[in-house]
Every structure is written in C-alpha cells, then in structure tokens.
Design brief:
The chain is α/β, with parallel strands linked by helices and 430 residues long. Helices cover 40% and strands 22% of the residues. The protein has a 5-stranded mixed sheet with strand order 1-18-19-7-8. The protein has a 5-stranded parallel sheet with strand order 3-2-4-5-6, with helices on both faces. Strands 11-12-13-14-15 form a 5-stranded antiparallel sheet, with helices on one face. Keywords: Signal.
C-alpha cells in the first residue's frame, strides 16, 4: 500500500510542479474578498503578512487557471480579522519553498539586499518568484507594519525522506530525520530572528508539520511517520519558545494534532486522479481555525454559511456583530444592496429623510452624506461622488425602505466594506 501511495504522490508532485507554472496566485492581495474598499489612513488596520510555502499560498491540485483565486488558511484568517475590525492581508507564500529558502529570503528582507531567485532557493517552481524578488523592499515595509505574521514551512524539507521511508532501514531513517530536524531548527530560528529584526513586536505564529497520509495508505509505516511528525512539532515548540517573550509573542499553531486520524478528508493524498499532500478546503479551514483561535480565541462562521441553500440571504456583519433584521439584503444588477436604516442603527449614525427630494441626509464621523433615490451620484460634504448603481426604495411590509449598494455605503460614510463570496457575508467596519 505504501509503495502505491508513493507512486501516486510522486506522480502528483511532479504534476503539481508543472501545473504551478500556470497558477495565478496574486501576491499582496486579499483573495477571499470579492469587494473591498480602500483603507482610510486615519483608521487602525490589523495587518497580516503570510510567509512560507505552498500551504501559505493556498495551493490545491488542479489550480491551472490563471484566474483561479486561492482560498487557503491565510484568506480565511483575513475574514476572521474582519470580525474584529479593519484588516488587510499580504500573502507571500512561495511554492516549493524550504526552511533554507525562507532563511535566505527573510535574510535579504532584513538586510535590504538585492537577491535573485536562485539566491533564495535553487529551482523554485513558483512562476511568481521573480515578482517576489522584486518586492523585497515592499515586503520589508509590510513586515515592519504587521500586527500578525504567519508561517507555514518545513513540508518540502522532509517530503522526500517520508517518501523513502519503506526503502530505508530504521537506523538510516532516524539518522536522516535527525539531520532534517537539525536543519529545520537552524533555519527556522534564523528566519524568526530575521523577522524579529524587521518587526520586534508583531505576533508570529508558526505552524508545525502535519503528516498527510492516512493509516489506510501507510499501514505499519503510519506510526513511524506520525512519530517523526511529532518530533517536528517538538522542534517547532522549542524554537518558538526560545524566541517568545512578553509583548513579542512567537506561538505554534498545532495543526498536526488536528490532522492526525483525519488525513483522508483534510488532505488530497487520496483523490481521483489528483492525489496530493496539500490540504483540501476542509483542511485549510482546519488550519485557519488553529491560527484564529491562537490570535482571537475563536473562529466564527456566519449564519448563512451553515445553511444548505444559496437562496438564503447573505449575512451582514457590522463591527463584529451579525445583523438580524427583517430587512433582508437584496441582490440587484450584480450588486448587493442593504437597508440604510439598519446600517445607521448598527453604527450609531444620524440620518433624516426628505420626502420632497426623496433623499436621505446622514451624518457620521465628520461627514455629511446625501443619498438621493435613483441618482448615480451621492454628495459627500457637498461634493458629488459617482456610484455604480443608485439607491432605491423597497417595500417592506407597509414601509418603504431605502436600499443602497455596499460601494456607495463605503464611499459615502468612509466605511471599510468587504464581501466574501465564500461566506456570502459582507463585513462592515466604520
């Protein structure tokens, strides 16, 4: 069974490297959001920077379309950030990256030095690597401003050893494992030190290494590889503990424990024609939960995400509170419209209605906004601002409710609005 698993994984890994050339995983973007507004520089923003390998990038087998947007643990973590206020994500997960590559990359970021793709790591399969190299100064700036830095790294260090487990004697396997552990310790410690030199205070969360293959595929070798994975967890714990201090936390996301016994559903190791060690969507959600619970003590799922049908209206979360109102959101001309009164009540804004002009005047945060039914402009402090689709009146019971698009709400009132199609949820933060 193990040899069969090895053949499948080897073939799929080669395919993954070939297909990765076609992947369009954008750096520095919040891929989970379909709609997001520009951040107001005067507002506090929780900034997340994700570093590491293809798990950080959110890779899954079959991602060959350049328009494919990954939805990995980092994108889910951004959504969790929106529950707590304005949040941004920049994702620099590099396909095929090892701990040595991360050490080289973070070293160049720390030093502000010019580095080549080969200088990071020889033969990296990521088609965006030249872009990552050019972005080194930008990444240094983003790391400096980050509140949370997440890292997944190490799987590419040991994948070959794990594939060879059947051919190696116990002595040879243990010897090579100890060598890999020593390299892991050295490289991860150096990477953390590089990051700390750039940002002395951000919380850093490092994931340990899960063992991807289920017992049914490994047989007697399952226990052996699980023991090896446990040693990597111990190494991650010890390295992080050596760097952890008050006001500058370095924590370990114990992902391996969550995957143990559930590898078949959490990874692509067994799949029709596309076996792969990367997480499934359920696996990425599992990883995100571990990170989120370390950072915020919880992982939240909106009400609509638990519903079985797409006909359920989308969810609205304002300042971390999910709205429960009879004035349901409306989808019109591809735009999501919300009842203005509900949003104003949620954020505590003042508003008044003028029947003569069919307009609402809203005052909030030093802004005066006039929204007129049917107009493709709104007035912000007396100035016309164009919007894509106008506000309209919608009959709800015996009342006419003013509905306006999310984009107009963000533009007019200066809110941060993000929409996640995966969660069918709009996050609104003043």
């Amino acid at each position: 069974m193990l040899s069969k698993w090895r053949r499948i994984l080897s073939a799929s890994t080669s395919s993954m490297l070939l297909l990765s050339v076609l992947i369009g995983v954008g750096a520095g973007s919040a891929n989970a959001a379909d709609t997001s507004t520009a951040q107001d520089a005067s507002q506090d923003v929780f900034r997340i920077v994700a570093l590491g390998d293809s798990i950080t990038a959110g890779y899954e087998p079959g991602m060959t379309d350049v328009n494919t947007k990954p939805y990995g643990y980092a994108e889910r973590l951004l959504e969790q950030g929106w529950y707590h206020g304005r949040s941004e994500l920049t994702n620099y997960g590099i396909l095929g990256l090892t701990t040595a590559g991360l050490r080289n990359y973070t070293g160049a970021i720390k030093d502000g030095s010019v580095i080549t793709a080969e200088g990071i790591q020889s033969g990296l399969p990521d088609p965006r690597i030249d872009q990552f190299v050019k972005l080194t100064p930008q990444i240094a700036s983003e790391l400096k401003e980050a509140d949370l830095i997440t890292i997944t790294i190490g799987g590419n260090d040991v994948s070959r050893l794990f594939l060879q487990v059947k051919e190696l004697t116990d002595t040879d396997f243990e010897s090579q494992l100890e060598q890999k552990l020593a390299e892991y310790n050295t490289n991860v410690k150096a990477s953390l030190e590089n990051i700390r030199a750039v940002n002395p205070q951000a919380t850093i969360i490092l994931a340990d290494q899960y063992q991807p293959a289920p017992k049914i595929a490994l047989g007697a070798m399952y226990t052996k590889l699980m023991t090896a994975a446990a040693k990597f967890t111990d190494s991650a714990d010890r390295v992080s503990a050596s760097m952890n201090q008050e006001g500058a936390k370095v924590l370990v996301a114990h992902v391996a424990a969550k995957f143990a016994g559930s590898e078949g559903s959490l990874t692509h190791i067994i799949g029709a024609g596309q076996a792969d060690f990367h997480p499934t969507q359920l696996g990425y959600e599992t990883i995100a939960k571990v990170f989120a619970e370390l950072q915020w003590g919880e992982y939240r799922i909106p009400t609509v995400a638990t519903m079985a049908t797409d006909t359920v209206p989308m969810s609205i979360v304002v300042k971390g509170v999910e709205l429960n109102t009879p004035n349901k959101p409306i989808l019109k001309n591809g735009q999501n419209f919300l009842a203005l009164k509900d949003i104003l009540n949620a954020v505590g804004a003042n508003g008044k209605w003028d029947n003569k002009t069919s307009s609402a005047t809203i005052e909030y945060g030093g802004r005066t906004v006039v929204i007129t039914i049917g107009s493709k402009f709104i007035k912000v402090n007396g100035q016309n601002v164009a919007i894509d689709t106008p506000a309209f009146l919608q009959k709800v019971g015996k009342e006419d409710k003013t509905y306006l698009p999310l984009a107009a709400l963000a533009t007019g009132l200066g809110f941060d609005v993000n929409y996640s199609s995966k969660l069918r949820t709009a996050f609104i933060n003043p």
